[in-house]
Amino acid sequence: MMDEGWAWSDAWIFVSTVIAGKVGRHRRSPLSRRPEGVRLVDVLATAEHLNQAIPTREEIETGVRRLLGAGLISVSDGWFQVTEAGEQLWRDRPRSGLTTTVDSVHGVLDQRYAATEAEWRLDDQDHAAAMLEYTGRFLPPVPRRSVENSAAAQQGRA
User: Fold this and answer.
1) Which of 20, 39, 113, 148 could form a disulfide bond with 70, CB atoms 3.0-4.6 angstroms apart?
2) Residue 71: alpha-carbon gap to chain centroid
3) Region for residue 24 given its phi and psi (left: phi exceeds 0; alpha: psi -120 to 50; beta: otherwise)
């Protein structure tokens, strides 16, 4: 694929993978860390926390392809891991507050890494399953009273 440069969303996916996997100063002890990495649902939840939005399927797929191409993450059987090179980028990035971390990482990616894409595809079913799990695990339930009031309002209009 052509080198089109790094998108902000690529850095967003990387930072979300780092934080979800507790890399760097957030790192878990080796005995409590999941050696296989984190799942897509965990990356989505962290991305939503960072940017109050969920990355689109295209943002995920393109970002992961570029991060794989740069050797910053690996994906195996649906598990996302930050590689040693990715951990080094995270340790060496300019320090900033959480709100500007993605911007800082985006700058580092632009300066130091080619945005070459590796072969990787996000399966439609895997994406749908992650979104379903995300909505079930991380979105607050609708209060029952709101559902009952909505149903009563609908019946009153009929």
Assistant:
1) 113
2) 17
3) left
Total residue count of the chain as it appears in this document: 158
Instruction: Indicate the pTM of the whole model.
Output: 0.80
Q: What gap in Å lies between CA 1 and CA 17, rounded to an integer?
A: 23
pLDDT of amino acid 23 = 74
Round to the nearest angstrom and report the end-to-end CA distance of the chain: 56
Contact status, residue 39 vs residue 78, Cβ threshold 8 Å = yes
Domain ranges of the chain: 8-157
Q: What is the pLDDT of residues 36-59, one digit of tens each?
A: 789 999 999 999 999 999 999 999
